[in-house]
Amino acid sequence: MPTTFNAIKAILLTDSSIGPDERTRLLGLLKNGAEKTAAADATPRLVRRAEAAQRLSCSVRLVDKLATSGQLPKRTLPGRSRSCGFLESDLILLLNGREAR
User: Fold this and answer.
1) CA 16 to CA 35: how far, in whole Å?
2) Is the pLDDT of residue 68 over 90?
3) Cα-flanking dihedrals φ and ψ of residue 87, to 5°?
4) pTM of the entire predicted model
């Protein structure tokens, strides 16, 4: 209901412990539902070697071997020559048993 939404919005505006980004996210969840906001949160996320190893439950050396073999492609930022990590979506594909692109 619009009145309930406006009341919750007013409460969130007065709460100083909640930042503007979190407030916008919460209001989006209330207004649109979880399905529509999940698509908006699907921005690519880079994961570093140590975190990738932790998620795969393996060593950093095995993550490096997966990268060398092409099963887990390294990603670089524009204007950089060294890789900075792996896409989280590639890790999820690898965990599900499919090879990353």
Assistant:
1) 28
2) yes
3) -75, 140
4) 0.55
